[in-house]
Amino acid sequence: MEQFQIIFYTKEDGTQPARKFMDGLSQKMRTRFAKLIVLLREEGVKLRMPYSEYLKDGIFQIRAQQEGNIARVLYFFWDGQKIVLTNGFTKKTQKTPPLEIERAKRYKADYERREADRK
To answer: What is the pLDDT, as a whole number, of residue 43?
Structure first.
């Protein structure tokens, strides 16, 4: 089976919010995310809880936990075999913050618009 391609969403100013978030995590947490990303690349849409969860409007999240800290990275699928990582955050409550989901949706819309402009 063909693996999915992992892409970091890049804003027009060149920054990559999900990469920036992960770079700021502890080494242990970055290692956990690296393993999760490998799993996501292999499993794609088949990856489920406790690793991945569908949120809404095409936005999913992967989650890593270490010593009571829970970090999330949001993503969406694009063009069949691509997974675009949008943004990340440290979860403080049971519910995923609506502002983070809205941010991921804005990044998704921007990515889709720019990809359409390339065609």
So the answer is: 93
Number of domains in the chain: 1
CA distance 62 to 50: 9
Q: What is the mean pLDDT of each run of 10 residues along the chain (119 residues)?
A: 90 96 95 95 92 96 86 94 96 83 98 87
Q: How would you write the chain as a 3-class SS string? A: CCCCEEEECCCCCCCCHHHHHHHCCCHHHHHHHHHHHHHHHHHHHHCCCCCEEEEECCEEEEEEEECCEEEEEEEEEECCCEEEEEEEEEECCCCCCHHHHHHHHHHHHHHHHHHHHHC
Structure tokens at 103: 């941010």
Range of the domain at 12: 5-118
Output the domain CATH number for residue 106. Answer: 3.30.2310.20
Provide the pLDDT for residue 1.
57
Q: Which two tokens stand for residue 71?
A: 């970090």
96: its two tokens: 């995923």
Residue 88 CA, distance from chain mean position: 7
